[in-house]
Specification:
By secondary structure, the protein is mainly alpha-helical. 71% of the residues lie in helices and 2% in strands. Strands 1-2 form a two-stranded antiparallel sheet. It is elongated. Keywords: Membrane, Signal, Transmembrane, Transmembrane helix.
């Protein structure tokens, strides 16, 4: 019988993550440490969105390969191989190790991006694994239903044929004595689902069919009543013919059900829903661990980015860098807890798929699967609260950071708006000054013209293409003055504003 793989200790460990730190943990929102398709606060890339699945036959070997690929990335974290982790951080350097803070920033940034990619791949693996579990459960259920249809048909045949056997035996008389020639069919099948009993029952029915056919051949002989010991009652043949008809009809109905049952059981035998469930538990544990690792590298990236950065302002009595630094103990503790559960899931896959045979006696695995799914669901829901502890702390610091950035952005926007306003007022003032100068120039020109003509406007008008300055000049000057006043008023209102 299949042993439960998610142990009580793992569940207790998950709950311990949530209770170890101060405060009350609440269900966490998906971490926004990458660029995702965000819907209602949940992201496809980190596996926090609902993913409806159908039955798809991803084999156990495919699931092993997919989870092993993620496992290869996580192995250094699971084993505490610091040399391997640091080695990956400096692997991209082409000119030897660069000890600058900027180089550290680039290393952590690259590590965060890789963790994000691994997380997205893990989310896809979970979806594929759920499809695989769905498929294995579907074919198991179809095999079970086909088996019971076949079993019920055999039971029905026994119930309908046994009375006809009794009738044929009753009419088989010689010298007035009844001679029983046919045995009743597999009555034990009515109280047992044992497959071997069904196989024997089917064979008994086939043997009975052959026996009755032989009897009818014998009953058709011309001299059947030649001797007293072979004398056949006239009612006996009718009963044997009725028995044959019932057997033939039953087998005609049973044969396709038997073929369907055998075929669906062969299909079901090619997969194991319980093993595939173990891969789902492993993939989910990998996802949860990757979320913490991504958060660690994201936090480290921002911490180093704030080195000698004007954005590193004081918020709630600490610099932003201090707020980010204070997250690391919580994140490392959360990573340890999730890795412990991941180790349990890895061991279960090894025991269930690579080492130990998990197949049950039949393909009816609903009860075992339901128990395993219940324990997995309990662990999953507990981990939502457990991991909510570190997720909420990270989110709180990210919100402080975002608010500080927004405040700085608002100040810069206000400064730029003020500069733009002052520039506009200077432009208006310059236009007013230009207008005043134009008025002065026009008045000076008009005065000069009056002096040149001696004030006599009755001179000949033989000149062409010129206006009568004496008649129109004053009106032009008045219009220019009105325009200048209109230009000055906005300037004056701007001055008052200051």
């Amino acid at each position: 019988m299949f042993n439960n793989r998610i142990r009580t200790a793992a569940l207790a460990g998950a709950i311990a993550i949530s209770t170890a730190a101060s405060g009350v943990a609440i269900p966490a929102f998906a971490q926004e440490t990458g660029t995702y398709n965000n819907t209602g606060g949940f992201n496809d890339a980190d596996g926090s969105t609902i993913q409806p699945v159908g039955p798809v036959n991803h084999t156990e070997a495919e699931l092993l390969a997919a989870t092993d690929a993620t496992g290869a990335y996580l192995s250094d974290f699971q084993t505490g191989n610091l040399e391997g982790i640091i080695g990956d951080l400096i692997a991209a350097s082409e000119n030897g190790f660069d000890p600058s803070e900027e180089a550290a920033f680039e290393a952590f940034k690259a590590a965060r991006e890789l963790a994000t990619q691994q997380l997205a791949f893990s989310a896809e693996t979970i979806t594929k694994t759920r499809e695989s579990v769905n498929y294995a459960l579907k074919v198991d259920q179809e095999a079970t239903e086909a088996f019971y249809a076949y079993r019920n048909a055999l039971r029905g045949a026994a119930e309908s044929i046994n009375p006809l056997i009794a009738a044929a035996n009753a009419e088989n008389r010689t010298d007035g004595n009844e001679i029983e020639i046919y045995d009743a069919l597999f009555t034990s099948i009515n109280i047992s689902d044992d497959v071997s009993t069904l196989v024997l029952g089917y064979r008994e029915l086939k043997d009975l069919q052959a026996e009755v056919e032989d009897d009818l051949e014998w009953l058709g002989q011309f001299d059947i009543d030649a001797e007293d010991e072979n004398y056949v009652q006239r009612y006996h043949i009718d009963k044997v013919e009725a028995l044959k008809a019932a057997i033939d009809a039953s087998l005609e109905a049973i044969e396709p059900l038997r073929a369907d049952s055998n075929e669906k059981n062969r299909i079901a035998q090619k997969s194991d829903v319980l093993v595939r469930q173990l891969f789902l538990e492993r993939a989910t544990a990998q996802r949860d661990t990757l979320r913490v690792i991504e958060a660690i590298f994201s936090t480290a990236t921002r911490y180093v980015e704030l080195y000698e950065n004007d954005e590193d302002v004081n918020v709630e009595g600490q610099t932003l860098r201090e707020h980010y630094k204070n997250l690391f103990p919580t994140l490392f503790f959360a990573a340890f807890g999730n890795i412990q559960i991941l180790n349990e899931a890895d061991d279960a896959v090894n025991a269930g798929y690579l080492v130990w045979d998990t197949d049950l006696a039949t393909n009816d695995e609903d009860a075992a699967y339901a128990q395993e799914k219940f324990e997995f669901a309990a662990l999953t829901y507990a981990k939502v609260f457990a991991n909510g502890n570190w997720q909420e702390k990270v989110k709180y610091v990210q919100n402080l950071d975002s608010a500080a950035r927004q405040e700085a952005a608002d100040r810069e926007a206000a400064r730029l708006a003020d500069e733009a306003y002052r520039a506009e007022q200077l432009r208006i003032a310059q236009e007013a000054a230009d207008a005043q100068k134009a008025i002065a120039d026009a008045l000076a020109k008009e005065a000069d013209n009056d002096n040149n003509t001696g004030g006599d406007n009755s001179s000949d008008d033989k000149g062409t293409g010129s206006s009568d300055i004496g008649s129109w000049g004053p009106f032009a000057a008045i219009a220019a003055i009105i325009a200048a006043i209109a230009a000055i008023f906005p300037f004056l209102s701007g001055i008052v504003k200051f």
